[in-house]
């Protein structure tokens, strides 16, 4: 009996020591590593795990377009240009296409901007088609797999559906020629036509230097509960409301415009970035498309993102556990947003803030120039590396054709 | 095709906002003017006209009646964004199933899962507003508690690690400006995020006046009296204040208060960063004090003396070399004010500070304790100074070696508090505790009015008006006559007159 008593006491002491140790470690630490397989993946190094061959396309597909409109370097879709530049000088690049695992086609499809700065996607399908015709006729690698080991960056609103309007985009569907390729895009929504199985979702481009120039000291107390700046009604395109953001943004405004906890308005303050760093929650509702650069900004500034977009697929969802970092609110629950947010226990909020403070998390959302380890470029490469090795079935027998080159709207078949 | 006509209108509206080239290559290919196209265009025009009349988008309603299958889930809908008057049709209008069949027809093959699998549908949605869209006070309180918890965590992570109590020593006495000054200090101390002990030493003994102010602070206070009255010359006043501060230090020693002693003179202004900065002191530290001297008449004297140098920085504090070591002190240069400084409290000349003000120093309270083993040996014991209080001008006299002072505020480069002396005449009267009791009810008309010209006599009828309306009415040019009212009321009437005259003249 004594032996059992002693053993029980020892166990009790050990348990208490370990629990105290766990409590000590958990409290008052500024950052927390996303433990487990998901978080460690962020710090993987893709160099040595894959090889990428970059096709040499004539400059009318990339450089000339950029020269015509240098604004493409600063808008939300600039990732396609920076990805090209990164790959050209990256150690994963190989000049020998025989040993390449992935093939990249540098075609800037989103660089046709209106005077306002918004991209028009009307020529993009023809441009892409023309590029693919070029690579399939000059190199044998496209026909070898019909594009299954090629990847394309299509950062526009609805990805490779190449339209800004959702109904039209769904009607068009993904460009038939890209049916077997891997798409790297900002758009992600489950069970949607424009999200292909196996796509890699990336964050929209946000200029890193501009954001880092507006950092304020960490000890500035966070005194804003919920923060949002942006449109609630898109008066130009949807004056009655109900189309834009599926009515979710308008619902936020109508329910919470009188609420002192919600600092929401349509203004464009110069202190936007500083204010985000003084807020606990930042709303990231959908707009015309479900993704939003606010997610990137919220992560960089340590503000917990409140994502209001049904079925959205967030960037690098297989590497970043977004459920633990952000708060997901269904669009139908928007009228109860204040109840939802105030009923989150403070320990959970503190844990989310610790996860957000993790520098590898912030780094994974950015496209810095020049590239740094752990940034979004590397996460894309990690994603591509995780899809290796290619299944044997992607390699087609010679003469076997899967893609239909004449599919799609008639207008797409015109040469570019 | 009919879809395309409508979509085209929507498309053109979006491109209109883009102000870009018209979509020549859009997929809708209406090649010839087929009768079906014209029919649909005419129908669309008719619907647009109907919408203009009715105030909502009528054309979609047509499709609703053609395609409405099941009524989708209707949650509480708001009466539309634009035309809010017609709510009933809009309720039906917002059915989610409108465009779904169209979508299904268009892309049957590409969808791997059925449309019902996705919760998200394209098309017009309702704007959900709850019946009482106003904040719930309990939730607001919960949110504030969350914010407070978050800020506490932030302070723990990024703020000061080892938090010590702030012991503020304030010498004061009852005078006209006391409430002004001491309220400022009190509010600063109440905002300090650490524990505060406030030692208020009052010259002339404890009074209700001071006690009433200090009690409002909610802090732990020691309110003690000092048995001398405050003299009327600045020199003697500074000396007495030093003695009062030493008295307070004796209290710290007696009570064995643990924390950081700072000297919060009641007319100084402290920044919040000061309290964060002094937490890092080890034994004794010095901060830079901004000296604000009322500079009346100083400029003339300097130009008379022909000084070429720029006016010195009004800062007292530690001076450091490039490696952030203390090498000396910036003190107040009183030569510029030689012979022109205030002697008595109500003098017009500028009031000068001492060479080094007490306010610029902070001490670890353990330096004052009686028996402490690890007390450093360069501190004189307080009991040694009994009787010799007169010579203590700054805490440096308590040290045997002044090089141990730690410069705070990035080596004195940041000025964290300001010294200012503004006082009324020593014989000025003010209501006790600033409460007017009994209320003023006797008004004596003054012998001289502000308008020396006596106005002419009033005409009869306007005088009647005057009696009934209780205000004086005349033509614009003439002044008011003297009435048996207080001056303030007359001023009010003067304003009213201005308004009334204009209306009167219009009538």
Strand % of chain A is 5-15%
Spatial ordering of strands, largest sheet of chain B:
3-2-1-4-10-6-11
The assigned structural class of chain B equals alpha/beta
Q: Count of helical segments of chain B?
A: 14
The residue fraction in helices of chain B comes out at 25-40%
Which outline of chain A best applies?
globular
Query: In DSSP terms, counting alpha (H) and pi (I) runs of 4 or more, how many helices of chain A?
Result: 16
Please state the CA-atom Rg of chain B, rounded to the nearest Å. 40 Å
How confident overall, as mean pLDDT of chain A?
Answer: 86
Distance between the termini of chain B: 71 Å
Count of DSSP strands of chain A? 10
Anisotropy-based shape of chain B: elongated
Explained architecture:
The complex is a heterodimer of chains A (416) and B (507). In chain A, 33% of the residues lie in helices and 10% in strands. Chain A is of the alpha/beta class and 416 residues long. In chain A, the strands form 2 sheets. A 5-stranded parallel β-sheet of chain A has the order 1-2-3-4-5. In chain A, strands 7-6-8-9-10 form a 5-stranded parallel β-sheet. Chain A is globular and about 75 Å long. Chain A has helices at 2-26, 37-40, 63-68, 79-88, 124-138, 141-145, 166-172, 208-212, 248-256, 272-277, 294-301, 322-325, 337-342, 346-356, 359-364, 376-386; strands at 52-54, 102-104, 150-153, 182-185, 200-201, 224-229, 262-265, 279-285, 304-308, 327-328. The N and C termini of chain A lie far apart (89 Å). Chain B has 507 residues and is an alpha/beta fold. Chain B contains 14 helices and 12 strands. The two termini of chain B are 71 Å apart. The chains are: A alpha/beta (416), B alpha/beta (507).
